[in-house]
Amino acid sequence: MLFGRRIKNPIRIADKGVVDWKYTTCGYCSTGCSIEVGLNAAGKAVSARGVGDAPVNQGKLCIKGIFEHELFNSANRGETPLLREKPIDPYRKAGWDEALDRTAAEFQRIQEKYGRDSVAIVSTGQILTEEFYTLGKLVRGVIGTNNYDGNTTLCMASAVSGYKRSFGSDGPPGCYDDFDHTECLLAFGSNLPEQHPIIYWRLKMALEKRKFPVIVVDPRVTMFAQMADIHLPITPGTDLVLLNALAHVILKEGLEDRAYIDAHTTGFEEFATLVAQYDPTTSAAICGIDEDTIRHVARLYAIAGAAMTIWTMGINQSTHGSDSVVAINSLNLITGNVGKPGGTPLSITGQCNAMGTREWSSCSGLPGYRALEKQKDRETIAEFWGVDPEFFPKTRGMFMTDIFPAMETGQIKALWLVATNPMTSMPNIPRIRKTLQNLEFLVVQDAYADVETTKYAHVYLPAALWGEKEGVFTNTERRVNLVRKVMEPHGDCKPDLWIFNEMARRFERGRKIRFPETSAQVFDEMRKLSRGRMLDYSGLTHDRIEQQRGIQWPCPEGAETGSPRLYTDGVFQHADGRAKLIPLPFVDNNERPDRQFPFWLNSGRVVEHFHTRTRTGRIGNVNKFSPTPYMEMNPDSARELGIGHMTYARLISRRGYAVVLVQLTHRVPHDMVFIPFHFHECVNQLTLGLLDPYSRQPAFKQCAVKIEPATDQLAAAAANVAARSF
Questions:
Q1: Least C-beta-crowded within 10 Å: which of 86, 133, 140, 725?
Q2: Burial tier of 385 (Cβ tally within 10 Å: 0-12, 13-18, 19+)
Q3: Coil, strand or helix at 37
């Protein structure tokens, strides 16, 4: 007997006529995959593939990387600079000289009238590190405003703040190879299969070699929670309570590593006194996790020879995000799980080069993890750049989330946005819309001319995409990888490095400072400024990075390769060389569901899309899997409200409303709904955006809504279809 089909139809991959493969690094998430883009005989990008010998992805790509080459010919790319006198006027085409002259003149006019800090600049986590460094030199050394930040405040600021508070410096201590050594993985607010598929694949490969417990803390039954050994469906916003309770059990049962604590930390007595208040019985009533489960998880983590903690936006995007990161670090410190194989607190970064902006953009300080508050750091950079150290402010200015309220009050009169789209990404969009209309002058610099924020701009500057220029990205595990130029820039688009250099020449102060023209020359400056510091780049070159398919810092001059882990010697970046154990009480100041607004609103990513869909929404083979806003809702809740599967519902918060398609699923509990955050017409119309007091990061994931059936289903469907296209 024959089994199966007599004639099989194998999958056939069409020959796309690739004649040359160009090495580069993926420009989406922070995983840092090495890819090759295939060019045909006409020089057109027609294919992409993973690089087999790359240490990060080992030949694998997710759906976004597979189709990334289609971005070069995607819809509504910018063609030429656009100008207008008022946002109500139509745009007209202009040359680069006119556009940059107008921008520089307006910045100078506004600064002369209102003061240096009346101009604000908000960048991104997606341009090249050399471009971040150059923008920082332009802002700190030439334009002089202190109101300068990146949109990484919306995703990674709490991780940065937490690392600094615990260890004395930013910088994820671990690496992906830690999956191969850990004996227990505890994941907070992270849905790796959809957020970072290749990192998830690395975890799955490690689990195939040997079994270890995987514990996922998430209010929603995500794909990651479904594969976990233990899922802890925590009450939103109460991660700090759970972390304190885990530490309580570990200390009460004597499971801590006292030798490590005594040798490498300070503040233990105060920390122990605080967590003594968070017994599992009391904590369970707050965080929603059974007290016996809390004890069981604490024991699993503490007795493991090496235990690893990872997290993403579920922790960071909270009013207690920075405190929760500190508590994660403390959990690792009291169990001796820092700086050793398999033992690390590892934040999983969001954007492809969020680490690059943290290291080199000068948003929060000065390049190379230097601080504006330190006189020596100000003098070092001033001498290197050739500026007066007194020109630098002595403290950092506003965060992105404080810049927008300052525009609302008239404190800030001009704004320059670089590859960020706050009309989708910021919470409480109705308020942001009014804020942008308050500006005297707005510049949008982006690869796409139709991003929502350009509706309010006076000048649009068309920028080159990631593969139309050359430089480096730094990924989640501190691996610096190379982006080679694959294609010439589209139309009259220019690399961001060129735009920043040209802008500098339009200021008298900028003409006195050296601004290197090539990314390799900029990288050489970065190497010199990093020598001997924690993030030592001095042993790196562009060619060497490509040869090794990415190199982790620190990599001092003379080293064969980089260092996979930080703090292996137990010496931290605080003045005394010790990490801090910080006691952190839980303050319940979130918006919670009530009788009027009875549902939690949760948000997150789906695997098909990236951030505001500016890119993935234009790629047919990606967008078709998730083309429209939708909401996951519990079937029992929907039945009680008379809402059916695949019908439209109206969500209402205290800020605004949205109409979305409903998908019924038991992945969300009875009192919660989930919406992907990628769609500009949806989730951030509703969010509250209370800010973490340390990181100033918004609490995107904790707010309350009420739900009702859409009264006109046909109109809702038509509006939903119209919103799909760019």
A1: 86
A2: buried
A3: strand
